[in-house]
Structures are given as C-alpha cells and as structure tokens.
C-alpha cells in the first residue's frame, strides 16, 4: 500500500471516540541514547491537572537487573494526531530516585529555582533539515546540488519551488503545535534548500525544555505522515551551505525593564569568560558535533573568538536592532547546535548570567 492510501485508511479511525472517560495519554521522554521516544497508555479517566497523570516506567537495556526507569509527567499538551481527549505528556526520567540519562531537566530546574527572582525567560530557534529515505536532502538533484547563488541568503524565507522545499511539512508542524498548545511563535525556510526553522517561546524557566521536547516530537510525528526524514545534525550537507543551529534568546526581568541594556551588557561580559563551558553544553557530545558547523558553515560565529554585535549574524552574541533602539529586551546566543539539549542550554545560561558559576 502506498503512503497516501495508508494515510487515507488511517483517517477513518480518527472519528472513533473511546468509551466513557477513557483517555489516551502518550508519554514523551528522552532515552539513554538521547533519542526522543514515546509510548501510549489508556487512562480510565480524563485528568484535570498534571498531578493526576500517573507515573510510568520504561525499560532500559543498559542494566538487565535494574532496567526500569521512571517517567514523571512535567507538562501536558493536546494530542494533534489522535485528537479528542488524547494528550501528549512530556516526562522527566529517573531511576532509583535519581536523575537518569541525558535529559538534564532536574539540574536545570534546580539552577533556575535558585535564582527565581531573576524571572529568566528563553526562546529557541530550532533549525532542521528534511531528507529523503536515502539520507539525500529532500528534493535535491540525485547527482550534484541545487543552484548555488552568490549568497545563500537567496533561500532564506524563500517562496516558490526553486527556493523552498518542504513547506507542507513545516506548515503541518506549525498548525499541529498551535493545536497542542505548544508555545510556537513562527517558522521560515532557511539558507539551504530543504532546511527550515521554527521558533519556540518565550517560555519562563525550565518550561522552555518541555515545549522544545514536545515540538520535536510533533515534528517527527508529522515527518512520518509526509514519509520523509528529519535531521537535527548541525552540518548534514557538505559544501557552501548554512549549518543547522538552535539560537537561544535570553532575558531576565532586569533586561526586559527600562535601562535593561546595562544588564544585557553585563551578561555578555560574563558569557565572554565562559566560552569553553558553553560550547561544551551546546551539543550532546561536548561540543564535537557543533564544531563541524562553527568551523565551516555560513552565518555562524567563529568558534575560536568570542564576539558580540548589534544585528550581527556572524557574532556569538547578537543584540537585535529593535532591542538596541529600545534600550531593553533580550540577547541572542547563536552558538547552540540544532541537536542541543534545551535543558542543558538553559541550565548553562542560567548558571553563567544569574548564578555566576
């Protein structure tokens, strides 16, 4: 059965409503290998609050004698795929009462709780690349590459079949996130054909990671429906093409208030002293993945030199033009990799600019 007929066959079942108050809850979590995973369960009631969602477990293959890890619900969204009363449940992971795996949520929350008075907020610009089943960039020539203009900005925010490839997936993901209640604020095509971006936030504190994890899950589920692959590899395509990042926008209450530029500059100074620590936290392999992007790709900061600038997309830290004109707001760190752990990014940023650690 071809993919279109398979989707049409499935659609007829979406009108089937569970009996009584039964609810399908899909638990979303990060496994030991840093993969986003999910498993669904039936609840005999429709929970009215986060606390009513029960703990669950999943099996981990690293220890056959102690294989169960615990899933603790931390955020709930509407399910855009099963719809109705169905829910998506983002979970933290632990084993024997201790944080488990690469999730990093518990440590992030602990750091943010220590400086709750700062009211730190984050937004993240998640870039990704669409691929065919064979790993080839989506709708690229099988031999060679698309036209390479003098400036790859030709493709950014592009419209038309020659400049934008995969818009249906991007729009489907956008609408699905809005339905779910995920804080998605926009989307656009990027500097490489079949490369896209969506923006999450602003979110207060650790919730940025919860919304990012939910949005990534929704994207991968949408990619199943469109029969394509999605990669967050920071440098999936060789040649004169843009890398794939996850810029993070950061502000505290002081930065957002009148005269906030002074506090933005103080934060930038602190960041300049912690370059190695931040690069190590900005991808899941201690900075090695991101090095391929920062060393070679376009529109990226130089990995060797810390810099900042107003409206500069070659600097490590960019102050948006409108923020500079207003004198308060937020700054953008352009260094995080597309495959970054959002909890680790938020944790590292909080430790540097709020806790002086």
From TrEMBL:
Keyword Cytoplasm: yes
This enzyme's EC code(s): 6.3.1.2
Species of provenance: Galendromus occidentalis
Chief location: cytoplasm
GO cellular component terms, semicolon-separated: cytoplasm
Subcellular location: Cytoplasm
The protein's name: glutamine synthetase
GO BP term, pick one: glutamine biosynthetic process
Enzyme class: ligase
GS catalytic domain span: 104-357
Keywords linked to the UniProt accession: ATP-binding, Cytoplasm, Ligase, Nucleotide-binding
GO terms, molecular function: ATP binding; glutamine synthetase activity
The family this protein is said to belong to: Belongs to the glutamine synthetase family.
Entry keyword annotation includes Iron-sulfur: no
InterPro entries: Gln_synt_N_sf, Gln_synth/guanido_kin_cat_dom, Gln_synth_cat_dom, Glutamine_Synthetase
């Amino acid at each position: 059965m071809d993919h279109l007929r398979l989707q049409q066959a499935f659609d007829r079942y979406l009108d089937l409503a569970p009996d009584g108050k039964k609810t399908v809850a899909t638990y979303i979590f990060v496994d030991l290998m840093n993969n986003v995973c999910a498993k669904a369960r039936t609840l005999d009631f429709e929970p009215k609050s986060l606390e009513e969602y029960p703990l669950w477990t999943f099996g981990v293959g690293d220890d056959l004698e102690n294989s169960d890890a615990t899933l603790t619900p931390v955020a709930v969204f509407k399910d855009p795929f099963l719809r109705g009363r169905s829910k998506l449940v983002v979970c933290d992971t632990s084993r024997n009462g201790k944080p488990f795996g690469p999730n990093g949520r518990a440590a992030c929350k602990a750091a943010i709780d220590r400086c709750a008075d700062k009211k730190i907020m984050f937004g993240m610009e998640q870039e990704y690349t669409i691929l065919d089943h064979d790993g080839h960039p989506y709708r690229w020539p099988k031999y060679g590459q698309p036209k390479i203009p003098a400036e790859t900005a030709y493709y950014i925010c592009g419209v038309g079949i020659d400049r934008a490839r995969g818009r249906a997936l991007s729009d489907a993901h956008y609408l699905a996130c809005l339905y779910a209640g995920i804080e998605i604020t926009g989307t656009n095509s990027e500097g490489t054909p079949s490369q896209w971006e969506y923006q999450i936030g602003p979110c207060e504190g650790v919730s940025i990671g919860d919304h990012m994890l939910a949005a990534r899950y929704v994207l991968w589920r949408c990619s199943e429906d469109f029969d394509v692959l999605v990669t967050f590899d920071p440098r999936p395509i060789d040649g004169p093409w843009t890398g794939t990042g996850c810029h993070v926008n950061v502000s505290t209450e002081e930065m957002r208030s009148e005269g906030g530029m002074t506090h933005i500059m103080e934060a930038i100074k602190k960041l300049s002293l912690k370059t190695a620590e931040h690069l190590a936290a900005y991808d899941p392999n201690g900075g090695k993945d991101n090095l391929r992007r920062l060393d070679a790709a376009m529109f990226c900061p130089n990995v060797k030199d810390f810099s900042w600038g107003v409206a500069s997309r070659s600097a490590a830290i960019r102050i948006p033009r409108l923020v500079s004109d207003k004198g308060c707001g937020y700054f953008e760190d352009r260094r995080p990799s597309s495959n970054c752990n959002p909890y680790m990014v938020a944790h590292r940023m909080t430790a540097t600019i709020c806790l002086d650690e």
